[in-house]
Amino acid sequence: MAGEPQADCLFCKIVAGDVPATLVRETESTVAFRDINPQAPTHVLVIPRLHYTDAASLAAAEPAIAADVLREADEVAKEEKLDSYRIVFNTGSGAGQTVFHAHAHVLGGRGLQWPPG
Q1: Which residue, among 88, 83, 81, has the nearest Cα to 107 in the 3D structure?
Q2: Does the predicted model carry a pTM greater than 0.90?
Q3: Has 103 been annotated as catalytic?
Q4: What is the distance between the alpha carbons of residues 39 and 70, in angstroms, rounded to a whole number?
Q5: pLDDT tens digit sequence for 68-91
Q6: Burial 72-97, CB ≥16 within 10 A → b, else e
Q7: Which of 52, 66, 87, 111 could disulfide-link 57, Cβ–Cβ 3.0 to 4.6 Å?
């Protein structure tokens, strides 16, 4: 069921503490941790504690939690002392989503060209 932890979800296991991650920040509604395959010098994932497949389903069901994810992305950027940064939400496998638990990528620490790959 949406919003409930999923036994086969890597990010739900990180939220539960069953899978280790390098935590950056935690709030009542979010967890932020370093990506294990960084695409920039700073690459942190911000996830809601609640399980939703992607950003769109999270925003539709829990708009306040979606806002918390964005707010935490900014807090991560501030703590990481990023002058500029990118927030990316991949939705669907064709867009590069590999873990189907809503999450924001906070990328920075180098020039980020546009358009991206």
Answers
A1: 88
A2: yes
A3: yes
A4: 19
A5: 999 999 999 999 999 999 999 999
A6: bbebbbeebebeebbbbbbeeeeeeb
A7: 52
